[in-house]
Amino acid sequence: MFRSLVRLQSRFGNALSLCKECPTSPFSLKYSTATSERRKFYQDVSISQGEGGLYEINLDQRKLKTPGGKLFTVPNEALAIAVATEWDAQRDTLKFYTMHLSTLCNTALDNPTQRNKDQMINAALKYLETDTVCYRVDDPYGLVELQKNEWDPVLHWIENRYNVTIGSSSNILGPEIPEATKDTFRQHLKSYNFWSMTGLEYVITQLKSVVLSFGMIDKHLSVEQAVLLSRLEEEYQIQSWGNVEWAHDYDMYELRARTAAGALFIQLSSESSTVKRKLLQD
């Protein structure tokens, strides 16, 4: 029954369009509250390459700045084009809460929590102890079977992929994660640059799962699959008892938009190749 829901084919190809659909982000800064809007004050959006090869966003003749007052710069042209597209897509009113990529860039630039990459890695790994996929229920039987059928394959995949042991538990404290597993993941996360780690931590907080986040970033799961699997219990309850349709759909698309934006941000912040500026015009 649920298996058919998670067999969706779309992966990162539609992530940019998704990230423009729905609001809010817990990583948001002071301008990105759920109701934050502002009248549009520019006509043209462009990108330019500045000092050190970094790319800047120009709103008419003004250089974009972060909420903290820093010059808004991104490490490559691909990410600059994606951010410029968000600003160009705004109409009469700027809906900052829909601009997830811009918000993630601001987070990486301003670093409001003043953490280094090792601290971010430690925070991300804490989610292993309460990972959505690892915590199981004892009843009802239908949900027990659903968790086993849908989550176990992903859990087995990541254990084989990284040669680790994670396991699952119905104990309220969750499974006891071996230190060797944490060390393996820690070494893997150190391969991410600061920007990519910002995006990955964001995705993990959305899905409340290291397992599902890794599955999506490694393209074992699509964005839609990862989101549906993170909401497995809620989907089960909805199928059993029904739902307020608009509220369910809103929550689903909102989470999908944030997760897709995070996945795209990780991909683009790791991008080293140059993307032709013609893409912005298209």
Automatic annotation (TrEMBL):
Identification of the protein by name: ATP synthase mitochondrial F1 complex assembly factor 2
Give any Gene Ontology cellular component.
mitochondrial inner membrane
Q: Which family does it belong to?
A: Belongs to the ATP12 family.
- Membrane topology according to the record: Peripheral membrane protein
The organism sits in which domain of life? Eukaryota
Q: Give the GO terms filed under biological process for this record.
A: mitochondrial proton-transporting ATP synthase complex assembly
Intracellular or extracellular location(s): Mitochondrion inner membrane
Record's PANTHER family? ATP SYNTHASE MITOCHONDRIAL F1 COMPLEX ASSEMBLY FACTOR 2, ATP SYNTHASE MITOCHONDRIAL F1 COMPLEX ASSEMBLY FACTOR 2/ATP12 PROTEIN, MITOCHONDRIAL PRECURSOR
Keyword terms, alphabetized: Chaperone, Membrane, Mitochondrion, Mitochondrion inner membrane, Transit peptide
- Species: Scomber scombrus
Function recorded in the entry = Plays a role in the assembly of the F1 component of the mitochondrial ATP synthase (ATPase).
Q: Major location, coarse class?
A: mitochondrion
Q: How does it assemble?
A: Interacts with ATP5F1B; involved in the assembly of the F1 component of the mitochondrial ATP synthase (ATPase). Interacts with FMC1.
